[in-house]
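tmp note - Pyrethroid hydrolase
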Amino acid sequence: MLVHGAFAESASWDGVIRKLEAQHYPVIAAANPLRGVKSDAAYVAGIVDSVKGPVVLVGHSYGGAVISGAATGKANVKALVYVAAFAPEAGESAADLAGKFPGSTLGPALAPPVALADGGKDLYILKNRFHDQFAADVPAAAARLMAATQRPIAEAALGEPAAASPAWKTVPSWFVYGDRDKNIPPAVQAFMAERAKSVKTVVVKGASHVVMTSKPDVVAKLIAEAASR
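out:
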């Protein structure tokens, strides 16, 4: 089960899905609501409950915080795979972790927040900054489509602390990320992987924040390893 993060959507997994289905793995790419860590985790947990059989939960970016909560107490979740993703400890937020080490340039790349009827705000990446900030190793034409179809995240979601004890403490976890990620500094991802006692960590040279889109073969291979363990 693949869970996208902020500013992405389910189609960001298309290349990975093709690779996994070629190996006869059934795949669900969940539509992450991007409204809040707790509510998004509950939504994904409901999808997990609908699956009859073992599940490998895969999260990209903010989706890592979501799967960390969604997998808690789910006996059928056998592995977690963090793809350029947050793996927060209880009480940590995505914003906390993104600023733990220098290197993120996301803040200046954000568009003015969009006001919501409930008083909240939605965040997008500026279209003219999207390619360089989010998907630098994706062809420009594809990045333009990604910028146009990006899903916004509620500003509050990035500051919402993870609640319960995260699933990576009890479920085997794998990590993959690019060394040119401008959203989540690679140093932060290395820290989280070590803290989670990652079974295997793959660092992709030259890869951006959307390593699953630019390097689907690498990401699919790691997911398959987690599934076959």
